[in-house]
UniProtKB/TrEMBL annotation:
Name the record gives this protein: DUF3455 domain-containing protein
Signal keyword on record: yes
Organism, as annotated: Cobetia amphilecti
Superkingdom as given in the UniProt entry: Bacteria
Keywords: Signal
Signal peptide: 1-22
Keyword Repressor belongs to the record: no
Length: 171
């Protein structure tokens, strides 16, 4: 119980982070009014891409999923992000999935900024009541900048990335 109280205190402190308050966020990935930051993490990890035929029959890099640690402001792991399906899980075992609402490009080589509407949480804990997840400040993670054709079919590449994940709850 002491650990949960400590983690709750960390998330409460992060909710008022200057980073969360000072960002210029594109309107397309802005969280609707009536929600406030409940916790802020930095995701550090990797994204798996595979060279394969897309739905339209052309060859291309296909997103296969993330595998990242969610860290607090001090770099301590407080959760993880993995998939598919995209799942954010707190160290207390509570977790959410969601529906992507919008993405916004964030420069060459970077995965896009993202807004996700959260599904109801599984388990009791920090993810309980999360309404939205916002991905900001992305660095890396985009599809590999290499050929994906018949000669490279089924090739898998791992790309490192980092991003801020802000978790919102209704006020």
């Amino acid at each position: 119980m002491k650990t949960i109280a400590c983690i709750s205190g960390i998330f409460a402190a992060l909710a008022l982070s200057p980073l969360a308050q000072a960002m210029e966020v594109p309107e397309s990935v802005t969280v609707p009014k009536g929600n406030e930051v409940a916790m802020e993490t930095v995701g550090v990890g990797k994204i798996k891409w595979a060279c394969e035929a897309k739905d339209d029959g052309t060859m291309g890099w296909v997103f296969k999923g993330p595998d990242a640690a969610l860290n607090d402001a001090d770099g301590k792991q407080v959760g993880k992000y993995y998939g598919p399906p995209a799942t954010w899980e707190s160290m207390d075992g509570s977790k959410i999935t969601g529906t992507q609402l919008a993405v916004e490009p964030n420069g060459k080589g970077n995965i896009p900024l993202q807004l996700v509407e959260a599904n109801p949480a599984e388990g009791e804990g920090h993810m309980q009541g999360v309404t939205y997840v916002q991905r900001l400040n992305t660095q890396g993670g985009a599809a590999p900048d290499m050929a994906c054709d018949e000669a490279h079919k089924d090739k898998v590449e791992i790309v490192m990335y980092q991003a801020d994940y802000l978790f919102y709850k209704a006020m």
